[in-house]
């Protein structure tokens, strides 16, 4: 049963996440946190942070970790398979059809219309996570880290891994006072 | 007889081909930060420039093709290119080398964190990461909004943003249904036209 749940939890983001792995982040959160309750938002954001600090595709890293956490090695295989296989198999099977339609306005519209939906999901997560942080470390630290992270990431184009390290140091230092 | 000949002829180069696929996609997996889409130039570097498995034209066709399908783009590229140059074994090879090493790193890192959660400093460090992730997701969201605004106009973008916010946050409709309704809206005119013919 757990394998079936794991499969569904990653199959849905895998076949609905248009725009690559990062756009499946909110869809995975929906399944893993909201639906199945395998993780809290705190744990989910640790996972996203680790995923951003490490190289490689993000969707399969999340699938691998959640799969392992829930059901060991077989869980990894099920979760990664559910993430990767359906769209890849469809792509190879429908190759000739897709080749004809890859420039089709309908296909392009699909990605265009789905992007704002993913954006809403991401924005809602942003607020949820900010609220969680506010409740756990207070509004002063939350604001300092958020503004700092925004400036470092967007203005100074510092690598996410370093920004996460800086936040870790901030957290460690804050326990000293 | 002829089959056997072909097989034995291909055996050596096949092994080398698989070794090349493995090293190409291992590099893509280990050097690409920020998820699949940011790895596309790395794949191009390996597949077109280094190993010359494809021409530029074909590569951009493959990227366009991968974009017609949902799901993570990095593994779709790895799987399809692996399949193109070495069949099913090539697809499996390319996906495994680009996915497995980083999954192992991820599990080790997060379990290290979980086993040390009772140390107050570690807990404080973990909490401090949450606002950073909030900002990262926010940046991604704004990036998506900007891209939509530029590609289909701000009016349409705002309408979809508002509608999907109401549907998902107020009415609590599962995102899957919201995305599926987009499929229907986009393809409805196509079906209608076909029926009229």
Automatic annotation (TrEMBL), chain A:
- The keyword Transmembrane helix is annotated on this UniProt entry: yes
Query: Where does the UniProt annotation locate this protein?
Result: Cell membrane
Q: How does it sit in the membrane?
A: Multi-pass membrane protein
For this UniProt entry, which segments traverse the membrane? none
Gene Ontology MF terms = chromate transmembrane transporter activity
Which is one Gene Ontology cellular component term of this protein? plasma membrane
Q: Name one Pfam family in it.
A: Chromate_transp
Does Membrane count among this protein's keywords?
A: yes
Provide the alphabetized UniProt keywords: Cell membrane, Membrane, Transmembrane, Transmembrane helix
InterPro entries per the UniProt record, alphabetical:
CHR_Transporter, Chromate_transpt
Domain of life where this protein originates: Bacteria
The record's comment on protein family reads: Belongs to the chromate ion transporter (CHR) (TC 2.A.51) family.
Q: What is this protein called?
A: Transporter
